[in-house]
Amino acid sequence: MTGKSFWVLRMKVRERIVADGIDDPAFNAADVGEYLKAAEVNAMLDDPDAVFIDMRNHYEYEVGAF
C-alpha cells in the first residue's frame, strides 16, 4: 500500500457542476415552485377538474415518497 487515497486524481474546473444545456441567462435554478403540505395536495386532488402529474423517478415511486 502506498498511502495514497487515489491511484490517479484529476480535477477539472467547470462553469457548472451539471451540463444541463441551459444557455438562457434569465434561467435561475433558485427560482422554484411552492412547497405543498400533504393536506394541501389532498385538497387539490379532491377537485374533479384537477390534473396531477407524478414527476417522481423510479426509485422515488418505489419508495413512495418524494
UniProtKB/TrEMBL annotation:
<protein>
    <submittedName>
        <fullName>Protein YceA</fullName>
    </submittedName>
</protein>
<dbReference type="InterPro" id="IPR036873">
    <property type="entry name" value="Rhodanese-like_dom_sf"/>
</dbReference>
